[in-house]
Amino acid sequence: MRVERLSRDKIRFFLSMDDLMERGIEKEDMWQDIPKVHELFNDMMDQAYRELGFEISGPVAVEVFALPAQGMVVVVSRGRTPSRDELDDLDGDELYELEVTLEESDQVVFQFADFEDLVQAAGSSYRLIGSGGSVYAYRDHYYLVLDTEMEAETLQKGIAVLSEYGEASTYTGHVLQEYGKTIWDRDAIGEIVRYFS
């Protein structure tokens, strides 16, 4: 589980499939109000406090983005901080109230430390997943964004190959389009293979 600060009142977690499996949580469980999901959220908030000094009390907005075959991105935003009198009136179980939004992404995003890793990943995955995708440069990394409109088994195998060279990213394709530099906006894997293999 990775956590990063987005702003003073907003943080983002990336939960891999392994993080969820270790806790016995399926993606579908995130839609339910069950104890193991509450325990996961409490663990996340403990980690956010330890690593970033991020404390919550009062209203909290939680956005959960399911990433196909990769895990989940969870964005937590603090609302207004309750007054001391309001805190005194709450018992320990009511320290925060959640407003949860759930979405499923139709994209897979991988980040690569350098361009050579991206070239290797494209070459190794080309025969399996074809020539699609977009590539962006952002914050000293390269990002490959793939649509998930392919057979589930092909997608799983493609993700396994890409994982050998990079890692799943917590950024969405929309963030990369907005803030990153577009290298290839379509057919990225095919273009990389054509020029660099």
From TrEMBL:
InterPro entries given in the database record: MecA_C_sf, Neg-reg_MecA
TM segment ranges: none
Recorded superkingdom: Bacteria
One Pfam short name: MecA
Subunit structure: Homodimer.
HAMAP family: MecA (MF_01124)
Function: Enables the recognition and targeting of unfolded and aggregated proteins to the ClpC protease or to other proteins involved in proteolysis.
Family: Belongs to the MecA family.
Notes on the domains: The N-terminal domain probably binds unfolded/aggregated proteins; the C-terminal domain interacts with ClpC.
UniProt name for this protein: Adapter protein MecA
Organism lineage: Bacteria, Bacillati, Bacillota, Bacilli, Bacillales
